[in-house]
Please model this.
Amino acid sequence: MKRVLQLVFLFAIVLTAGCTAIDAVTGRQTRNFYSLDQDVGLGTQVYEQTIEEMHARGVPVNEDQARVAQLQQMVNRIGAVSDLPNLPYEVTLIQTNIVNAMAAPGGKIMVYEGLWDPKDGLARDEDEIAAIIAHEIAHVNCRHSTEAMTRQMLPNALFLGASIFAQAKEQDELAAALGGAFVLYNGIWVTRYSRADEMEADSVGLMYMAEAGYDPRAALRIWERASQQRTGNDPADSIFSTHPSDSMRLTNLRARLPEAMKIYQSR
Ligand SMILES: [Zn+2]
Model:
């Protein structure tokens, strides 16, 4: 029994001590249990599973090759000016009418065709799509997914510790207790980023798009439109659910716009 408790404490110490990293965007220390390579590995794995799932459901993926080439060029341009320019940035076009774009850790970006319509879409021109891609690339650079996963690990470790304790008490068998599924994370794509993460991705993305030569005023148009287009009971996989737009986000973007315009105009 003592051995079990020792293991749990050891695990908690490893979790809290072994996860400091330097944030490439801010230069500050952050907590991330994963290495950048693991971000790429994890993201690639989730990405491949998602493509498989789309194929299984008969959803066309990357069939509009002209559009994929255009999106990939945008991703390359914005990725190149980001803080982590060497990540393997890759965009995939999912051809359904869902209005969303997502990023997996490490640089895999998914754009849904429904995001874009020149007449009445959320994004209506290239600058507006760039605003969304830049926001997603900012999430990748800030490593928000694996940071969020790291934040969830300690509660999970304590939960695991408690269940090991309970089960080991019953059967005094550590191996059986450890056999239970320890699911660290199950929603890498549709991460519920915190509001702070969203605002950081807005600010960082605004500078990235300006630096890449896209008009940063498009970001304000997009998120203003998003706040008007959301209905309150939007599907869970839409951008309106995964990126709740509120006045704080718009205030933050307006405050950052002059700095971004300076970057944009000095290019
Ligand atoms: Zn976001």
Summary: The CA atoms of residues 163 and 177 lie 8 Å apart. Strands lie at 20-22, 29-31, 90-94, 101-103, 108-112. DSSP finds ten helices and five strands in the chain.
